[in-house]
Every structure is written in structure tokens, then in C-alpha cells.
Amino acid sequence: MNNPRPKVRLSRALGIPLTPKSVKYFEARPYPPGEHGRARKQETDYKIRLREKQRLRAQYNIREAQLRNAFAKAAKVEGKTGEILIIDLERRLDALVLRAGFARTIYQARQFVVHRHVLVNGRRVDRPSFRVRPDDVIQIAERSRTLDPFVIAATGANTEKVPPYIEANHQALAARLIRLPERREVPVICDEQLVVEHYSR
Question: Cα-flanking dihedrals φ and ψ of residue 119, to 5°?
Fold first, then answer.
């Protein structure tokens, strides 16, 4: 978990920094890993769409089956499937723990949820995939607040991450999902239309 190297390799392969630690490595070597990383390769449409899907998976730290299921659900809803997919993924509890500034990375946010540090409307939830609804309140459990990551979060160290659809009180380690996000507000680097095309082929 402390070794940044695997995340750095994945960041370089996908063309996006996935953690704060990987940013400096990514900026120094912004090309895919391996001896042919710098070489320009002919990319097929399939490879481009596949990489975009992998980017989306990596940013939410979810399994292929989870993304495929989320896509199938989004495809049944009227509207732009790609945008509906992103908005649905953004409602995941681990994603909102990250966006609220209670965690530094999606990996850390997932760990906090699994280890039962997070409450939704006063009840412990240990499923990172739990979908939060507008007006739901996310809090860090009272007993967990003395842990170093939460002490740091309570100072507002991660406030730059908070998007407009979340109302966060860092001192109280509580946040509320005000409303569903709009796609343009979600800080995810992805051409979701390519993801739709990948699964629709």
C-alpha cells in the first residue's frame, strides 16, 4: 500500500496521475512504462476505447464486473448513457469520501469504508459501492476521529478537492450530498463516450 511504484506504472500506462504521490513521477516521465514507452505506436480504435475504459475503472478503483454492471444499469436510463454512468459512479460512498476531503486517494477512501470508519445517516456502512442519495450525510465515526488521516482531514488540508455538489464541514468530519452532480463538475478524466462505444460494440 505504501509503495507508490505500481500506481506510478499504472498512471503512466493510462496517461493520468492516479495519486498525489504519482504526480511527480508522472510529470517527470509522462509516457507509458517499458523500453518502448516513448515510441509512437499505431493505435487501433479498440485500444483507444479500451484504455479509456481502464482509465475510468482506475479512477474509481473498481473491478471490471462492477463497471460492466454500472454500464448495463446506465444504458437502461433515458439520456446520455456515458454521463449517467459517471454520475452513478460518483455516488459511490468511497468516491464521496474522497471528494469530501476525508481521504487523499480513492484507495485510502476505500480502505476507510471497508474498515468501518464511515457512517451514512448515522449508520456504519462498510461497502465502498454503497450509493449515496441527495441529502444523505456522510460522517467519520467518533472513535475514528483521533486517527492521523482524519486529524489531518479535520484541518481542511484536502479542501481543494470538494466539488460544488458536496457540502463539507471538515472540522466536524461530516459532509452532505446536496444534489446529484453534473458531468462537467465531476473531477474524472475520461471521454465517457468511448467507454460507451467499448461496451456497445
Answer: -115, 145
Cell of 51: 484504455
**pTM score of the predicted model:** 0.83
pLDDT at 39 over 80: no
Half-sphere exposure of 34 (CA within 13 A, CB side): 7
CA distance 21 to 26: 9
Burial class of residue 199, CB neighbours in 10 A (0-12, 13-18, 19+):
middle
Domain boundaries, the chain: 93-179
**Residue matched to cell numbers 482506475:** 58
From 3.40.50.150, 3.40.640.10, 3.10.290.10, 3.30.565.10, which CATH number describes the 93-179 domain?
Answer: 3.10.290.10
HSE-up of residue 43 (Cα within 13 Å, Cβ side): 10
